Amino acid sequence: MPSGNTETASAFEFKSASVQLVSFVPATLDPERLEDELRDKLGDGEHMLSGAHVAIDFSSLPQTPDSDMLRTAVALLARFGLDAVAAQGGNDAQLAAARDAGLIVIDSDAVTHLSPPKPAEAERVPAMIVTKPIRAGQQVYARGGDLVVLALVSNGAEVIADGSIHVYAPLRGRALAGARGDAAARIYTTCLEAELVSIAGVYRTLEEALPANIKSAAAQVRLDENKLVIEALSGLV
What we know:
Blueprint lengths: L19 E5 L6 H12 L10 E5 L9 H13 L3 E6 L3 H9 L3 E2 L6 E2 L14 E3 L8 E4 L4 E3 L8 E4 L3 E7 L2 E4 L9 E6 L3 E4 L2 E4 L13 E6 L2 E6 L5
Parallel strand pairs: 1-2, 1-5, 2-3, 3-4, 6-8, 7-9, 8-10, 9-11, 10-12, 11-13
Antiparallel strand pairs: 12-15, 13-14, 15-16
C-alpha cells in the first residue's frame, strides 16, 4: 500500500561554493595587441593556464568599452584556453558593459587568486627522447619528466616539460620547462635562437637581439629568485 507520507524531496538546494579565478588585467582591449601578447606569453597550444576561469579586472583600463568590445575580448581569451566568466575593479560604466556582455560582476575581495603552481609531487618518469625535428605548429610535452631533443626545434614549434629541457640542436621555437611549477628546472641548448623561454611559468620573449656570446651559441636558461637568467655554456657541445 502507498505510504501515508506525502512529503517529496526538494527539486534543488543551494550550497556555498568557491571558485578559483585568474585576474586578467588589460591596459587595452585592442584585439590585435592582445592577440599578439597572448600568443607571445601562452603560445598556441596547451599551457599552464589552459582551462582557467578568468575575471577581467578593469582597474588598469582607461577606456569604457562597449559590450561588443568585451565580447570580442572574451572570445579571444577563449581561443587561448581561458574562460572569462566575471568582471571586477571597474567604474559603473565599465561594469555595466560587462553585464551586457554576459559577465558576472564580483567584488575584488571575492576573487580567489591562483597561487604559482606547486611542483609536481609525483615521481619523475624517464626522460622523453625525441630524435626527429619538431616542425612549426607541432607541440611535444614531456609529462612528469625531462625532455631531450636531438634535432631541430623549428620556429613556431613548442617543447614543454615538467622537468628540464635539453635540445642538442638549434632551438628556434618556444621552450617551457618546469611546466608544473618546478623552479629548479632548466633549459639547455647547443644553439639558442628561441622565440620564447619559460621556467615554472616565468616567461621571456627573445625578440630583442641577444648578446653575441649567447645568440646562436650553447646556453642555458635558469630561474634565479623569480627572474630568468640566460647565460652561455662554453663547455656544452
